[in-house]
Each structure stands twice: as structure tokens, then as C-alpha cells.
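[recover] target loaded
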């Protein structure tokens, strides 16, 4: 129950019609006895949103598309990993000073915990903020990244910064040359659930296929992968992992995972 003592947290982005951040965070707060409510603030103006964080003394802010890069100039301090990735998805307000972090990488590590990346060919689709995080993790893990993006120049930027190579077209690829596929684009997200970012002829058994999208839980890409006999990784794994890390940074202590994937599955 919200009272005069209830503190305010936020998720910012544009649009936010289908975000599950309020549901997940508020359940985490309830489970940990925190008198806090997280609300969604949708606005295309990143600076206006950051100004609101200061004005309203918002403690923790989750940042989503398209503001992960745009908020960086307005931070007082930015964590080393967030600077490397050039994406902030978490803002912690400590006594009026705003600290920017990237917890998406914790979510990626959780989602790929049982997937070997070292010396593997990893096809990464997309070149936005989430793709940059995944590209960083591929580099850290010793994988060989193949970047596929509708704008080749953006794929080349990832290759320059994190290693690997940009691919001009999916037609240049063969299924047998790909060990891991990761979709970091919104293609296939609700309501466009019949779309897939990749042709099924590039999927095969013994691959691992991950989609960062969590609504729907099983995207068309993941259905195609299952049909091909590939191992699939759902976006909810990453989503829950990054949220738990956000609360940990804000509270300064570990937060238990109380089967939040099952909780979210019931909402989708």
C-alpha cells in the first residue's frame, strides 16, 4: 500500500506501453520489505526525464529504449563498464548525485551462463544499446562475433570497438558457420509476433539461439530454433538478471531471486 512514506523509483523510455519493469520491481520490493513503488515515465526527451529524477528525488531509475545512450551526458558519474559499452540502463540517486551503470551485462551473463562463447562464432543481430552490451560480453568471453544489422555502418562500429566482423547480408552466412545466434533487435516483439529477424535456413541443431525480447516469451525466432533442434534462451532470463542487479546496486546488498521468471510468465 502506498503511503506518505513510500519512496519513488522509475523506469524511463519511450514508448513504455508494454514494459514489465513496474511489475517485476514492485514484486521484488514487496518481497524484500521495501516501502517503494516503481512507476513508468514515458517521454522522448531524455534530459527532461533526468531532470525529473533530480526534482522528485527518485532513488533508482531503470532506463530503456531509446535513452540508454542519451542519458549519459546528464550523469554525475558513469561506471567503467557503462562507459565501455556506451549505454546506461540504471541510474542510482545518492544524495542528489546521479550514478550511471549498465546491469544489462549481468543479465546477459545470467542468460548465457550455460552457453560456451569462447572460440565460438556468435551471430549478433542488431547494433543498439543492448547489442553493444552483448558484443562486450562476447569479447570478454573470447567469442568471435559476427554483426548483422540493417545499417552496415553501425555493425562496423561494433566490430571496431569490440572485435569481430560486420556481415553485409544474411545471404553471406551459412548455418554450419554459426554456433550461437543472439537477437538484440525488437523484431518479433509484441504486437508484431509473426516477424523474425533471421531466416530459418540459418538455424540448425547444436546451435544456441537467444532472443532478448521477453514479450512474447517464445518469439518466432525461438520457435524456428526449436523446430531446427537448437537450444533456446528466453529473454526473461536477461530481464530478471539485470533487474536484480539494479536493486542490488541501489540497496547495496544481494537480492534473492524468488522465481521471478515464473511470476512474469503468469503476466504475459
Amino acid at each position: 500500500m502506498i503511503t506518505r512514506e513510500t519512496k519513488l523509483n522509475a523506469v524511463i523510455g519511450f514508448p513504455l506501453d508494454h514494459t514489465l519493469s513496474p511489475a517485476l520491481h514492485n514484486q521484488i520490493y514487496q518481497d524484500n520489505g521495501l516501502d517503494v513503488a516503481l512507476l513508468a515515465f514515458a517521454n522522448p526527451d531524455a534530459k527532461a526525464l533526468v531532470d525529473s529524477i533530480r526534482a522528485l528525488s527518485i532513488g533508482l531509475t531503470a532506463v530503456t529504449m531509446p535513452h540508454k545512450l542519451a542519458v549519459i551526458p546528464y550523469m554525475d558519474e558513469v561506471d567503467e563498464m557503462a562507459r565501455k559499452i556506451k549505454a546506461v540502463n540504471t541510474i542510482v540517486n545518492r544524495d542528489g548525485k546521479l550514478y550511471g551503470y549498465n546491469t544489462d551485462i549481468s543479465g546477459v551473463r545470467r542468460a548465457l551462463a550455460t552457453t560456451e562463447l569462447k572460440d565460438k562464432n556468435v551471430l549478433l543481430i542488431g547494433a543498439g544499446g543492448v547489442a553493444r552490451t552483448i558484443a562486450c560480453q562476447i569479447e570478454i568471453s573470447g567469442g568471435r562475433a559476427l554483426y548483422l544489422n540493417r545499417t552496415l555502418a553501425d555493425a562496423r562500429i561494433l566490430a571496431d570497438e569490440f572485435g569481430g566482423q560486420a556481415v553485409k547480408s544474411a545471404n553471406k552466412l551459412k548455418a554450419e558457420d554459426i554456433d550461437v545466434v543472439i537477437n538484440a533487435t525488437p523484431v518479433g516483439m509484441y504486437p508484431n509476433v509473426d516477424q523474425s529477424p533471421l531466416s530459418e535456413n540459418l538455424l540448425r541443431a547444436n546451435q544456441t539461439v537467444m532472443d532478448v525480447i521477453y514479450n512474447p516469451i517464445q518469439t518466432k525466432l525461438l520457435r524456428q530454433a526449436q523446430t531446427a533442434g537448437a537450444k533456446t534462451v528466453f529473454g526473461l532470463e536477461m530481464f530478471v538478471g539485470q533487474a536484480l542487479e539494479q536493486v542490488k546496486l541501489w540497496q547495496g546488498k544481494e537480492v534473492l531471486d524468488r522465481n521471478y521468471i515464473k511470476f512474469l510468465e503468469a503476466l504475459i
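[recover] notes: The first strand starts at residue 7 and ends at 13.
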